[in-house]
Every structure is written in C-alpha cells, then in structure tokens.
Amino acid sequence: xxxxxxxxxxxxNKNAEQTEDLLNELIEKMxxxxxxxxxxxxxxxxxASAVDHLEFINxxxxxxxxxxxxxGAYTGEISADMLKSVGVDIxxxxxxxxxxxxxxxxxxxxxxxxxxxxxxxxxxxxxGEELKDxxxxxxxxxxxxQLRDGLFQIEAKDWDNIVLAYEPVWAIGxxxxxxxxxxxxxxxxxxxxxxxxxxxxxxxxxxxxxxxxVKPDNAKEIFSNPDVDGGLIGGAALKSDDFIAIVNAI
Length: 250
Ligand code: 13P
Fold this sequence. Notes:
An eight-stranded parallel β-sheet has the order 3-2-1-8-7-6-5-4. β2 (36-41), α2 and β3 (59-61) form a beta-alpha-beta unit. By secondary structure, it is α/β, with parallel strands linked by helices. 42% of the residues lie in helices and 15% in strands. It contains eleven helices and eight strands. Bound molecules: 1,3-dihydroxyacetonephosphate.
C-alpha cells in the first residue's frame, strides 16, 4: 500500500538538548488524527534518546546513514545491528550530500541498501540530478542510472521496505524548488522506471517523496501531484511550526 510520508532530515543539526526541545515541540503540535507517517532523522548520538522520547507518539525515528559491514575495524562507523538495538529501523541512504561530500558511489550505496534490508530496515533511498544534468537535458538518464545502479539489485519482496526520495541537487538548501510540473514529470518517470523493472504492483505501491526546499508555502502544491506521496524535508524540519505545517499540507 502506498503511504503518505513526511520525513525530516535534520542533517548535522541540533545537540542533545536542542533535539529534546524540538521533539517536545513536535509532540505538542502533532495532529492527533493523521494518515501520514511522520519520521524524524536526528544525528546518531541522539537517536536512542529520540526513540525513548517518542515511544508514545506516532512519530518514527530514522538514521541518516549506516555502514555496509556487520561489525569490525571501521573507526567512526555505525552498523545496522547497532541502529536496530536502539530501536531504529529506518535509514536514509544515497543522500546527495553523502554522494558529493563523502564520495559515496552507487555501488557503495547499493551495498548499504543490501545490508539495511538484510536487517529488515526500511530504506529511504535518495537520488536526484545535479543542475548541469538538467541543463543538458540528461536528468532522466541520471535518475534512471542512480536507481538501477544503487537500488535495482534488490528482490521484489524487498520493495515493502523501500521509500523513494527524489531530491534534485539544485533544489537542496537553495530555496529553489522544482516546479510542481517538474516534480510530477519526474515522479511519473520514476514510477514508470520501477514498473518496467519490477512490474505494476510494486510501482503503484511504492511511496515517492520529493525533497528540495519544501516549505509550508509550497508543500500543498507539490503534494497535490498524483505521483508525489510526501516529502523529505531539510531546513524546514528544524522548525516545529514549519514541519507540522508541511505534515498538515498533505
Ligand atoms: P532542504 O529542505 O533544506 O532543501 O533539504 C532537503 C534535503 O536534503 C532533505 O534530505
């Protein structure tokens, strides 16, 4: 079943106290009745406390990364088993910042996806073209390749644990949003690409989120497109009023 989802990617923001404050504000402002799955992704060090904090409220907690190996000599890294052991079973993978700043390749992302799925985690799989790709009208190719090389190694049964997040790099943190028409056009293409590789049932069921400068004042228009099932929110997820306004815009 295709779900409506709004996820907040907090990136490298909020210390322990600030995390608790923002979570308290979200708890207070969350709509009591909603069919939207709301997810927050604080930093690693605040995940366990976030899970505890949100125990009695319908907000799920995601990690922003995971290492592909099970355990061992990987200084500074965090495994899927560690995340699961503190109650986190959702992970964001393939984010453009991980690709660009930390040089994550499609092959590396694919192995992280495989590890997360082996641990029965849900993967929010991010992908999206850079400005130069759109300017050279290569954006559909880039997106198709990212899907094929980073995700399509999975099996049909794994799709229950996959959420797609299309984030055009040129719209992330820039204040520049893709137009509702550009978003719908790409989401339709993504669903078609999934359909060709895995069939109609999977393509219809998978949730495809849009990310890139989503704000309270543009969320409704973006979410009203038939192939947009929610959003992955950066900057606006750090302010409780904005984030909840976006949740309420679906
Ligand atoms: P902004 O909403 O700040 O553009 O960030 C989007 C994003 O990268 C979410 O993962």
